[in-house]
Write a structure and sequence with these properties.
This protein is of the alpha/beta class. The chain folds into two domains: 136 residues, 3-Layer(aba) Sandwich (Rossmann fold); 87 residues, Putative phosphatase, domain 2 (DNA polymerase, domain 1, Orthogonal Bundle), CATH 1.10.150. The structure holds magnesium ion (MG).
Amino acid sequence: MKTYKHLFFDLDRTLWHFDRNSEETLQEIILEQRLHDYGVSDSTAFIREYRKINEMCWAQYRKGELDKESLRVIRFSRVLEQHGVHTPGIAERMAERYVEVSPTKTVLCDGAMDVLEYLKGRGYVMHIITNGFEEVQFVKLNNSGLSPFFQEVIISERIGFKKPHPKAFEFALRTSGALQDESIVIGDDLEADVGGARKAGIDQIYYNPERLTHEEVITHEIAHLHELRDLL
Ligand SMILES: [Mg+2]
């Protein structure tokens, strides 16, 4: 087993429970914006559709086809349109509230806190590398108690290269003073985290809690964060 020194964690869906936090936020906003009055009676179905649309918008964002501001509003306007809601201003208000409310949510992925304590105790130097937006990622890290574990927080938006671009990982190594050979990337996204790290010549741990099938060759794969104790 290779010895690592620097651990680069993805944030959303790897440590911060994106889906549960997002669900809580959306339920609140749907009530607050009184979508029921516009004919949205099934908030669960609304959230399910929002998720699909959000994923598509993020894929477009990663390819540079959508900018940040458009992404934030379009994901809401598209799902509202699907529900026959065309009233001006609602998508913008929901977009604004989503960005305000969601980073205050604090649900973490199962075992995240315990395993970070363990890794810190083992002397690893830990960092975050995320494609999320700067102003929300820092709020999330602070509110959820994750901040003290990390030395560097690398936000792709700020450096101008998004994961999976190898330059995002090269920047992360440089900023942290880490060598390729003593570093490993831990993330839930096969393309952005695993594929990106591999292209940059860095080992990878694929966090795959849903045990999705795939054909990729990965350094290590785990279904629960606790398994990091066996690897690191
Ligand atoms: Mg992720």
